[in-house]
Write a structure and sequence with these properties.
There is one protein chain. It is built from five helices and five strands. By secondary structure, it is of the alpha/beta class. α2 runs parallel beside α3. The longest helix is centred in the last third of the chain and has 16 residues. The N and C termini lie far apart (28 Å). 31% of the residues are buried.
């Protein structure tokens, strides 16, 4: 990460990715800067987590073992709408295909990023989404 560390104190993130290394990396990155993070390896686990955890931001892979990340986002957004909230969402995936990017953005992801992860860019993106939500 860059020398200018961002504070994510109090920020709650849900990371959904079937790759354990990605989950570990993102947990380390954001916890180091004060965020509370819960990870899930599947869409089903993410839905279950949402019953007790109210994240400020979702970071999710598109290709999950049990369900597509786009359909997961639709379900999570429906859950959040019942709570009167809209969770900002970042698609973080290994797919660089335009059709995957377009499908993710049409499903409601705010941002689409390809792996490998640029940690500085991801941190800045999360900070930008948080700022947008604070002033919405």
């Amino acid at each position: 990460m860059s020398n200018q560390s961002m504070s994510f104190k109090g920020l709650r993130l849900l990371v959904v990715d079937d790759d354990p290394d990605t989950r570990t990396l993102l947990t380390f990155l954001f916890e180091l800067d004060g965020a509370e993070i819960i990870t899930a390896a599947s869409a089903g686990a993410a839905i279950e987590i949402m019953s007790f955890f109210k994240p400020d931001i979702l970071i999710s892979d598109i290709y999950l073992p049990d369900e597509n990340g786009c359909s997961l986002l639709v379900k999570l957004r429906n859950l959040e709408a019942k709570r009167g909230r809209k969770i900002p969402a970042i698609a973080l995936t290994a797919s660089a295909f335009d059709e995957d990017r377009n499908r993710a953005l049409l499903a409601g992801y705010d941002i689409y990023r390809c792996k490998p992860i640029d940690l500085d860019d991801l941190s800045s993106t999360v900070a930008s989404l948080v700022m947008l939500e604070e002033y919405a």
